[in-house]
Amino acid sequence: MRWRSKSNRDWLRSLPGVTEDEPLATRTSFGIGGPAEFFVESGRVETIEKMLTGCLEREIPYTLLGAGTNLLIADKGIEGLVIRVVNRDHRIEGTRVTAGAGLKMMRLARIVADAGLRSFEFAIGVPGTVGGAVYQNAGCWGKEMRDVLVDVCGFVPGAGKQKWDPKKLQLGYRTSALREGALKGALVIEATVHLERGDGEEAKRLMAKLTAERNETQPIKTKNCGSVFKNPPGDSAGRLVQAAGLKGLRQGKAAVSTLHGNFIVNEGGATARDVATLIQRIQAEVKRRFNAELEPEVELVGRWK
Ligand SMILES: Cc1cc2nc3c(=O)[nH]c(=O)nc-3n(C[C@H](O)[C@H](O)[C@H](O)COP(=O)(O)OP(=O)(O)OC[C@H]3O[C@@H](n4cnc5c(N)ncnc54)[C@H](O)[C@@H]3O)c2cc1C
Is residue 58 domain-resident? Predict the structure, then answer.
Protein backbone atom coordinates (compact mmCIF):
# COMPACT_ATOMS: atom_id res chain seq x y z
CA MET A 1 0.00 0.00 0.00
CA ARG A 2 1.33 3.36 -1.09
CA TRP A 3 0.46 5.26 2.09
CA ARG A 4 2.78 3.09 4.23
CA SER A 5 5.90 5.18 3.53
CA LYS A 6 8.49 5.57 6.26
CA SER A 7 7.58 9.21 6.82
CA ASN A 8 3.87 8.35 7.16
CA ARG A 9 4.62 5.55 9.61
CA ASP A 10 6.92 7.89 11.57
CA TRP A 11 4.14 10.49 11.67
CA LEU A 12 1.61 7.91 12.90
CA ARG A 13 4.07 6.74 15.58
CA SER A 14 4.48 10.35 16.75
CA LEU A 15 0.76 10.77 17.54
CA PRO A 16 0.03 11.22 21.26
CA GLY A 17 -1.01 7.94 22.88
CA VAL A 18 -0.81 5.92 19.66
CA THR A 19 -0.47 2.13 19.82
CA GLU A 20 0.16 -0.38 17.03
CA ASP A 21 -1.67 -3.64 16.35
CA GLU A 22 -4.18 -2.70 19.02
CA PRO A 23 -6.88 -5.36 19.58
CA LEU A 24 -10.33 -4.05 18.71
CA ALA A 25 -12.56 -7.03 19.52
CA THR A 26 -12.86 -5.94 23.15
CA ARG A 27 -13.94 -2.50 21.95
CA THR A 28 -17.00 -3.89 20.19
CA SER A 29 -20.21 -5.32 21.61
CA PHE A 30 -19.78 -8.36 19.32
CA GLY A 31 -16.35 -9.13 20.79
CA ILE A 32 -15.14 -9.87 17.26
CA GLY A 33 -12.51 -8.48 14.90
CA GLY A 34 -8.79 -8.11 14.29
CA PRO A 35 -6.51 -5.26 15.40
CA ALA A 36 -6.17 -1.64 14.40
CA GLU A 37 -2.91 -1.06 12.58
CA PHE A 38 -2.58 2.23 14.49
CA PHE A 39 -4.96 3.20 17.31
CA VAL A 40 -5.61 6.35 19.31
CA GLU A 41 -8.29 7.08 21.88
CA SER A 42 -8.95 10.77 22.40
CA GLY A 43 -11.46 13.10 23.97
CA ARG A 44 -9.61 16.20 22.78
CA VAL A 45 -11.41 17.53 19.75
CA GLU A 46 -8.49 19.64 18.44
CA THR A 47 -6.20 16.61 18.64
CA ILE A 48 -8.67 14.47 16.67
CA GLU A 49 -9.10 17.24 14.08
CA LYS A 50 -5.32 17.47 13.62
CA MET A 51 -5.03 13.71 13.21
CA LEU A 52 -7.81 13.65 10.61
CA THR A 53 -6.22 16.52 8.68
CA GLY A 54 -2.86 14.72 8.81
CA CYS A 55 -4.44 11.53 7.49
CA LEU A 56 -6.08 13.44 4.64
CA GLU A 57 -2.83 15.17 3.66
CA ARG A 58 -0.88 11.91 3.81
CA GLU A 59 -3.63 9.78 2.22
CA ILE A 60 -3.69 7.51 5.27
CA PRO A 61 -6.99 5.65 5.68
CA TYR A 62 -8.76 6.30 8.99
CA THR A 63 -11.77 4.90 10.80
CA LEU A 64 -13.76 6.57 13.58
CA LEU A 65 -14.92 4.37 16.41
CA GLY A 66 -17.58 5.05 19.02
CA ALA A 67 -18.74 2.32 21.40
CA GLY A 68 -18.43 -0.32 18.67
CA THR A 69 -22.06 -1.44 19.02
CA ASN A 70 -22.96 -1.41 15.34
CA LEU A 71 -19.79 -2.79 13.79
CA LEU A 72 -18.53 -6.08 12.44
CA ILE A 73 -14.77 -5.65 12.19
CA ALA A 74 -12.93 -7.98 9.79
CA ASP A 75 -10.72 -10.72 11.26
CA LYS A 76 -7.69 -9.07 9.61
CA GLY A 77 -8.49 -5.84 11.42
CA ILE A 78 -8.53 -2.27 10.13
CA GLU A 79 -5.74 -0.67 8.15
CA GLY A 80 -4.45 2.82 8.82
CA LEU A 81 -5.50 4.81 11.88
CA VAL A 82 -8.48 4.00 14.10
CA ILE A 83 -9.57 6.88 16.32
CA ARG A 84 -11.87 6.10 19.24
CA VAL A 85 -13.82 9.28 19.99
CA VAL A 86 -14.40 9.76 23.73
CA ASN A 87 -15.29 13.44 24.30
CA ARG A 88 -18.09 13.10 26.84
CA ASP A 89 -18.97 16.62 28.01
CA HIS A 90 -22.55 17.82 28.11
CA ARG A 91 -24.37 21.06 28.87
CA ILE A 92 -28.02 21.77 29.48
CA GLU A 93 -29.49 25.15 28.56
CA GLY A 94 -33.23 25.16 29.27
CA THR A 95 -34.69 22.39 27.14
CA ARG A 96 -31.65 22.20 24.86
CA VAL A 97 -28.97 19.64 25.59
CA THR A 98 -25.60 19.51 23.88
CA ALA A 99 -23.55 16.34 24.26
CA GLY A 100 -20.08 15.31 23.15
CA ALA A 101 -19.92 12.59 20.50
CA GLY A 102 -18.29 10.14 22.90
CA LEU A 103 -21.04 10.27 25.53
CA LYS A 104 -23.13 7.11 25.66
CA MET A 105 -26.78 7.56 24.69
CA MET A 106 -27.91 5.51 27.71
CA ARG A 107 -25.94 7.75 30.06
CA LEU A 108 -27.36 10.87 28.42
CA ALA A 109 -30.89 9.44 28.78
CA ARG A 110 -30.35 9.26 32.56
CA ILE A 111 -28.69 12.70 32.74
CA VAL A 112 -31.61 14.44 31.02
CA ALA A 113 -34.19 12.55 33.10
CA ASP A 114 -32.35 13.76 36.24
CA ALA A 115 -32.66 17.29 34.81
CA GLY A 116 -36.46 16.91 34.44
CA LEU A 117 -36.45 16.59 30.67
CA ARG A 118 -38.55 14.18 28.59
CA SER A 119 -38.60 12.88 24.98
CA PHE A 120 -35.21 11.21 25.19
CA GLU A 121 -36.36 7.99 26.83
CA PHE A 122 -35.81 6.07 23.57
CA ALA A 123 -32.04 6.54 24.04
CA ILE A 124 -32.06 4.01 26.90
CA GLY A 125 -32.34 1.35 24.18
CA VAL A 126 -29.26 2.53 22.26
CA PRO A 127 -25.97 1.32 23.79
CA GLY A 128 -23.81 3.38 21.40
CA THR A 129 -22.45 6.92 21.63
CA VAL A 130 -24.02 10.20 20.57
CA GLY A 131 -21.65 10.30 17.56
CA GLY A 132 -22.66 6.81 16.46
CA ALA A 133 -26.33 7.65 17.01
CA VAL A 134 -26.15 10.70 14.72
CA TYR A 135 -24.26 8.69 12.09
CA GLN A 136 -26.91 5.99 12.20
CA ASN A 137 -29.98 8.09 13.08
CA ALA A 138 -30.37 5.60 15.90
CA GLY A 139 -33.78 5.04 17.35
CA CYS A 140 -35.95 2.79 19.41
CA TRP A 141 -39.62 2.27 20.23
CA GLY A 142 -40.78 4.47 17.34
CA LYS A 143 -38.53 7.46 18.12
CA GLU A 144 -35.18 8.33 16.61
CA MET A 145 -32.49 10.99 16.68
CA ARG A 146 -34.07 13.11 13.94
CA ASP A 147 -37.17 13.63 16.14
CA VAL A 148 -35.12 15.58 18.70
CA LEU A 149 -32.01 16.77 16.86
CA VAL A 150 -31.47 20.54 16.49
CA ASP A 151 -28.00 20.48 14.94
CA VAL A 152 -24.60 18.87 15.00
CA CYS A 153 -21.17 20.44 15.25
CA GLY A 154 -18.82 18.46 13.05
CA PHE A 155 -15.48 18.52 11.31
CA VAL A 156 -14.73 17.74 7.68
CA PRO A 157 -11.03 17.04 7.06
CA GLY A 158 -9.83 19.64 4.57
CA ALA A 159 -12.88 21.87 5.07
CA GLY A 160 -12.86 22.51 8.83
CA LYS A 161 -15.55 22.84 11.49
CA GLN A 162 -19.16 22.95 10.31
CA LYS A 163 -22.72 23.04 11.67
CA TRP A 164 -25.16 20.57 10.15
CA ASP A 165 -28.92 20.75 10.56
CA PRO A 166 -31.04 17.58 10.20
CA LYS A 167 -31.70 18.40 6.52
CA LYS A 168 -28.00 18.60 5.72
CA LEU A 169 -27.48 15.35 7.64
CA GLN A 170 -30.13 13.62 5.49
CA LEU A 171 -31.23 11.47 8.39
CA GLY A 172 -33.15 8.44 7.17
CA TYR A 173 -34.02 5.02 8.51
CA ARG A 174 -30.75 4.03 10.25
CA THR A 175 -28.69 6.15 7.89
CA SER A 176 -27.39 9.66 7.25
CA ALA A 177 -25.13 11.66 4.95
CA LEU A 178 -22.32 10.53 7.27
CA ARG A 179 -22.98 6.87 6.49
CA GLU A 180 -23.69 7.11 2.78
CA GLY A 181 -23.71 10.71 1.58
CA ALA A 182 -21.70 13.89 1.21
CA LEU A 183 -20.44 13.83 4.82
CA LYS A 184 -18.75 10.42 4.63
CA GLY A 185 -15.53 10.47 6.65
CA ALA A 186 -16.57 13.54 8.68
CA LEU A 187 -16.35 13.68 12.46
CA VAL A 188 -19.33 14.32 14.73
CA ILE A 189 -17.99 16.52 17.53
CA GLU A 190 -21.18 17.20 19.46
CA ALA A 191 -24.94 17.15 18.95
CA THR A 192 -27.69 19.39 20.30
CA VAL A 193 -31.15 18.00 20.98
CA HIS A 194 -34.37 19.79 21.91
CA LEU A 195 -36.35 18.08 24.67
CA GLU A 196 -39.47 18.83 26.72
CA ARG A 197 -39.88 19.77 30.35
CA GLY A 198 -41.53 17.01 32.33
CA ASP A 199 -41.42 14.59 35.21
CA GLY A 200 -37.94 13.05 35.26
CA GLU A 201 -39.00 10.32 37.72
CA GLU A 202 -41.73 9.26 35.33
CA ALA A 203 -39.14 9.18 32.52
CA LYS A 204 -36.95 6.88 34.64
CA ARG A 205 -39.88 4.57 35.42
CA LEU A 206 -40.72 4.36 31.71
CA MET A 207 -37.09 3.61 30.81
CA ALA A 208 -36.91 0.87 33.46
CA LYS A 209 -40.13 -0.68 32.11
CA LEU A 210 -38.96 -0.56 28.48
CA THR A 211 -35.58 -2.05 29.42
CA ALA A 212 -37.21 -4.89 31.39
CA GLU A 213 -39.53 -5.68 28.46
CA ARG A 214 -36.60 -5.67 26.07
CA ASN A 215 -34.56 -8.01 28.23
CA GLU A 216 -37.39 -10.54 27.89
CA THR A 217 -37.54 -10.44 24.09
CA GLN A 218 -33.96 -9.75 22.95
CA PRO A 219 -30.62 -11.39 23.85
CA ILE A 220 -29.33 -8.10 25.24
CA LYS A 221 -26.83 -9.65 27.65
CA THR A 222 -25.02 -11.69 24.97
CA LYS A 223 -22.23 -10.55 22.61
CA ASN A 224 -24.14 -9.09 19.67
CA CYS A 225 -24.50 -5.96 17.53
CA GLY A 226 -28.19 -5.22 18.07
CA SER A 227 -30.37 -5.60 14.98
CA VAL A 228 -28.39 -7.25 12.20
CA PHE A 229 -30.79 -6.21 9.44
CA LYS A 230 -32.96 -3.17 8.77
CA ASN A 231 -36.67 -3.89 8.69
CA PRO A 232 -37.89 -4.04 5.10
CA PRO A 233 -40.79 -1.63 4.35
CA GLY A 234 -43.97 -2.85 6.06
CA ASP A 235 -42.35 -5.92 7.61
CA SER A 236 -39.91 -6.91 10.30
CA ALA A 237 -36.56 -8.58 9.67
CA GLY A 238 -36.94 -10.67 12.84
CA ARG A 239 -40.32 -11.98 11.68
CA LEU A 240 -38.92 -12.95 8.26
CA VAL A 241 -35.91 -14.75 9.76
CA GLN A 242 -38.19 -16.64 12.15
CA ALA A 243 -40.72 -17.49 9.42
CA ALA A 244 -37.87 -18.86 7.31
CA GLY A 245 -37.05 -21.24 10.17
CA LEU A 246 -33.61 -19.72 10.69
CA LYS A 247 -33.64 -19.09 14.44
CA GLY A 248 -30.78 -21.09 15.94
CA LEU A 249 -28.96 -21.40 12.57
CA ARG A 250 -25.22 -21.66 13.21
CA GLN A 251 -21.99 -20.87 11.42
CA GLY A 252 -18.88 -21.68 13.42
CA LYS A 253 -19.36 -20.02 16.80
CA ALA A 254 -21.96 -17.55 15.54
CA ALA A 255 -25.66 -18.32 15.79
CA VAL A 256 -28.98 -16.68 15.05
CA SER A 257 -30.52 -15.97 18.46
CA THR A 258 -33.28 -18.34 19.47
CA LEU A 259 -34.91 -15.43 21.33
CA HIS A 260 -35.04 -12.91 18.45
CA GLY A 261 -34.47 -13.64 14.76
CA ASN A 262 -32.80 -10.30 14.03
CA PHE A 263 -29.90 -10.93 16.41
CA ILE A 264 -26.72 -12.89 15.74
CA VAL A 265 -24.91 -13.96 18.88
CA ASN A 266 -21.19 -14.58 19.30
CA GLU A 267 -21.25 -17.71 21.43
CA GLY A 268 -17.54 -17.33 22.22
CA GLY A 269 -14.76 -17.34 19.65
CA ALA A 270 -16.90 -16.50 16.60
CA THR A 271 -14.95 -14.95 13.73
CA ALA A 272 -16.07 -12.03 11.61
CA ARG A 273 -16.09 -14.47 8.69
CA ASP A 274 -18.54 -16.73 10.62
CA VAL A 275 -20.91 -13.79 11.10
CA ALA A 276 -20.56 -12.47 7.54
CA THR A 277 -21.27 -15.95 6.15
CA LEU A 278 -24.28 -16.34 8.44
CA ILE A 279 -25.58 -12.96 7.24
CA GLN A 280 -25.28 -14.11 3.61
CA ARG A 281 -27.01 -17.43 4.34
CA ILE A 282 -29.92 -15.63 6.04
CA GLN A 283 -30.23 -13.14 3.17
CA ALA A 284 -30.24 -15.94 0.58
CA GLU A 285 -32.84 -18.03 2.41
CA VAL A 286 -35.18 -15.08 3.12
CA LYS A 287 -34.89 -14.06 -0.53
CA ARG A 288 -35.61 -17.63 -1.69
CA ARG A 289 -38.60 -18.11 0.64
CA PHE A 290 -40.23 -14.67 0.56
CA ASN A 291 -38.48 -12.77 -2.25
CA ALA A 292 -37.56 -10.14 0.37
CA GLU A 293 -34.23 -8.30 0.51
CA LEU A 294 -32.62 -7.95 3.94
CA GLU A 295 -30.21 -5.03 4.10
CA PRO A 296 -27.63 -5.14 6.90
CA GLU A 297 -28.00 -2.51 9.63
CA VAL A 298 -24.66 -3.60 11.10
CA GLU A 299 -21.69 -2.06 9.30
CA LEU A 300 -18.86 -4.26 8.02
CA VAL A 301 -15.51 -2.49 8.30
CA GLY A 302 -11.85 -3.39 7.84
CA ARG A 303 -9.78 -5.70 5.66
CA TRP A 304 -12.14 -8.36 4.33
CA LYS A 305 -9.85 -9.46 1.45
C1 LIG B 1 -27.71 -4.81 22.38
C2 LIG B 1 -27.80 -3.74 21.34
C3 LIG B 1 -29.00 -3.07 21.13
C4 LIG B 1 -29.10 -2.07 20.17
N5 LIG B 1 -30.29 -1.43 20.00
C6 LIG B 1 -30.39 -0.43 19.09
C7 LIG B 1 -31.63 0.27 18.91
O8 LIG B 1 -32.62 0.01 19.57
N9 LIG B 1 -31.67 1.24 17.97
C10 LIG B 1 -30.59 1.56 17.21
O11 LIG B 1 -30.69 2.48 16.39
N12 LIG B 1 -29.42 0.92 17.36
C13 LIG B 1 -29.29 -0.05 18.28
N14 LIG B 1 -28.10 -0.71 18.42
C15 LIG B 1 -26.98 -0.39 17.54
C16 LIG B 1 -26.04 0.73 18.01
O17 LIG B 1 -26.08 0.91 19.42
C18 LIG B 1 -26.34 2.05 17.31
O19 LIG B 1 -26.27 1.92 15.92
C20 LIG B 1 -25.38 3.16 17.76
O21 LIG B 1 -25.83 4.37 17.21
C22 LIG B 1 -23.94 2.92 17.33
O23 LIG B 1 -23.11 3.81 18.06
P24 LIG B 1 -21.60 3.45 18.42
O25 LIG B 1 -21.03 4.55 19.22
O26 LIG B 1 -21.53 2.10 19.03
O27 LIG B 1 -20.96 3.43 16.97
P28 LIG B 1 -19.87 2.42 16.41
O29 LIG B 1 -20.47 1.06 16.32
O30 LIG B 1 -18.59 2.57 17.14
O31 LIG B 1 -19.70 3.00 14.95
C32 LIG B 1 -20.77 2.94 14.02
C33 LIG B 1 -20.47 3.94 12.91
O34 LIG B 1 -20.57 5.25 13.46
C35 LIG B 1 -19.40 5.99 13.12
N36 LIG B 1 -19.10 6.93 14.19
C37 LIG B 1 -19.01 6.66 15.52
N38 LIG B 1 -18.69 7.79 16.19
C39 LIG B 1 -18.57 8.78 15.26
C40 LIG B 1 -18.26 10.17 15.31
N41 LIG B 1 -17.98 10.79 16.47
N42 LIG B 1 -18.24 10.87 14.15
C43 LIG B 1 -18.52 10.27 12.97
N44 LIG B 1 -18.80 8.97 12.85
C45 LIG B 1 -18.84 8.23 13.99
C46 LIG B 1 -18.30 4.94 12.98
O47 LIG B 1 -17.25 5.41 12.15
C48 LIG B 1 -19.06 3.79 12.34
O49 LIG B 1 -19.08 3.94 10.94
C50 LIG B 1 -27.97 -1.73 19.38
C51 LIG B 1 -26.76 -2.39 19.59
C52 LIG B 1 -26.66 -3.38 20.56
C53 LIG B 1 -25.34 -4.07 20.78
Answer: yes
How far is the centre of ligand 1, averaged over its atoms, from the C-alpha of 229 (Å)? 14
- CA dihedral over 202, 207, 208, 214, signed as positive or negative: positive
Pocket of ligand 1 (CB under 6 A): 29, 63-71, 85, 101, 125-129, 131-133, 135-136, 138-140, 178, 187-188, 220, 224-226, 299
Give yes or no: residues 163 and 266 share one domain: no
* Per-residue model confidence as pLDDT tens digits over 109-158: 999 999 999 999 999 999 999 999 999 999 999 999 999 999 999 999 99
**Helix or strand run (H / E) with residue 179:** helix 177-180
CATH number of the domain to which 232 belongs: 3.90.78.10
Domain of residue 74, residue span:
7-85
pLDDT tens for 196-251 read 999 999 999 999 999 999 999 999 999 999 999 999 999 999 999 999 999 999 99
Residues 181 and 227 in one domain: no
Residue 209 shares a structural domain with residue 223: no
User: ipTM strictly over 0.90?
Assistant: yes
How far is Cα 293 from Cα 276, in angstroms, rounded to an integer? Answer: 16
Q: Are residues 177 and 233 in the same domain?
A: no
- Probe ligand 1: pick from 136, 137, 169, 187, max atoms within 8 Å of CB? 136
pLDDT tens profile 24-78: 999 999 999 999 999 999 999 999 999 999 999 999 999 999 999 999 999 999 9
Residue 132's identity, in one-letter code, is G
- How remote is the CA of residue 223 from the centroid of ligand 1, in Å? 15
In whole angstroms, what is the distance from residue 194 CA to residue 181 CA?
25
2 within some domain:
no
Residue 227 is a catalytic residue? yes
Domain end, chosen from 85, 115, 140, is at 85
Q: Is residue 14 annotated as a catalytic residue, yes or no? A: no
Q: Tell me the pairing of strands 78-85 and 36-42.
A: parallel
